[in-house]
């Protein structure tokens, strides 16, 4: 029985050890939030793994020696971000009673989202939100807009503001250039944490883990080689072994 299960057991133990080297950074995330965190960490050259915790939540794991830096980056980027609250959610399309105002609110909300997505494609822009004025009567049109932008790095604010105003003006019917305001804020650079003197402890743990995994690989290779020498193939049991198992 040991000869049958030995290689599989060693392989399973090796996989368990290799996957158990990471530490959990954050949990109870939606898939969107987990992807957002992983993308940000990989942007800063930190390897991260997304793990499914249950049917609807995920966790993100990183190596123990970068856990402190990854935590600081989460704080700097204010992640995970909360789900956006959209005006269109207050006027669902499948409501029992629909009104012209509700239809217009959904249309304006969609325009806001599309404009925000477009502005986020610009270089150095890390976050952008567009707010259009909502009419309180059926015959009023959108007459003003506000744009909030969070950026990183050095940008020419006057040039950005001029282009963004022109983008909004040409995207929203009836709005004038003077009634568009753009506010830009520079986002603080993420804090880089210098590893402490005891940072060699997790590295030593990883070293022993990989050494132990190498020993398991060598043992597995020895078992496979022994089977090849005895049977001329990678069969782990033969008729004689099967008969012995049936007797036992």
Description:
This protein is α+β, with helices and mostly antiparallel strands. Among the domains are: 21-77, 2-Layer Sandwich (Alpha-Beta Plaits), CATH 3.30.70.1530; 87-186, GMP Synthetase, Chain A, domain 3 (2-Layer Sandwich), CATH 3.30.300. The protein has seven helices and six strands; from the N terminus they run αβαββααββαβαα. The longest helix is centred in the last third of the chain and has 32 residues, at 200-231. It is elongated and about 85 Å long. Mean pLDDT is 76; it is low at 1-5 and 193-201.
Features:
248 residues, Alpha-Beta Plaits, GMP Synthetase, Chain A, domain 3, three-stranded antiparallel beta sheet, three-stranded mixed beta sheet, 7 helices, 6 strands, elongated, disordered N terminus
Task: Quickly count the helices.
Answer: 7
* Secondary structure category: alpha+beta
Question: What CATH architecture of the domain at 87-186 do you see?
Answer: 2-Layer Sandwich
Strand % is 15-25%
Order of H and E elements: HEHEEHHEEHEHH
Largest beta-sheet characterization: 3 strands, antiparallel
- Total strands: the figure is 6
CATH class of the domain at 87-186: Alpha Beta
Supply Rg. Answer: 29 Å
Global geometry: elongated
- Percent of residues in helices: 40-55%
């Amino acid at each position: 029985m040991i000869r049958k299960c030995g290689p599989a057991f060693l392989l399973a133990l090796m996989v368990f050890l290799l996957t158990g080297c990471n530490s959990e950074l954050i949990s109870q995330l939606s898939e969107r939030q987990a992807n957002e965190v992983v993308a940000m960490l990989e942007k800063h050259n930190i390897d991260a793994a997304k793990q499914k915790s249950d049917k609807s939540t995920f966790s993100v794991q990183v190596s123990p020696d970068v856990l402190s830096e990854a935590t600081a980056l989460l704080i700097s980027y204010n992640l995970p971000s909360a789900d956006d609250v959209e005006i269109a959610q207050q006027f669902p399309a499948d409501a029992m009673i629909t009104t012209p105002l509700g239809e217009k609110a959904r249309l304006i909300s969609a325009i806001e989202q599309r404009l925000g997505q477009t502005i986020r494609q610009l270089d150095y822009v890390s976050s952008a939100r567009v707010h259009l004025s909502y009419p309180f009567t059926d015959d009023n049109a959108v007459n003003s807009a506000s744009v909030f932008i969070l950026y990183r790095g050095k940008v020419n604010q006057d040039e950005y503001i001029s282009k963004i105003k022109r983008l909004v003006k040409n995207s929203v019917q009836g709005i004038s250039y003077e009634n568009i305001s753009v506010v830009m804020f520079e986002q603080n650079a993420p804090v880089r944490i210098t590893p402490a003197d005891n940072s060699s402890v997790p590295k030593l743990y990883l070293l022993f883990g990989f050494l132990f995994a190498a020993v398991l690989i060598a043992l597995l290779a020895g078992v496979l080689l022994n089977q090849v020498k005895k049977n001329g193939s990678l069969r782990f049991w033969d008729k004689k072994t099967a008969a012995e198992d049936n007797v036992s």
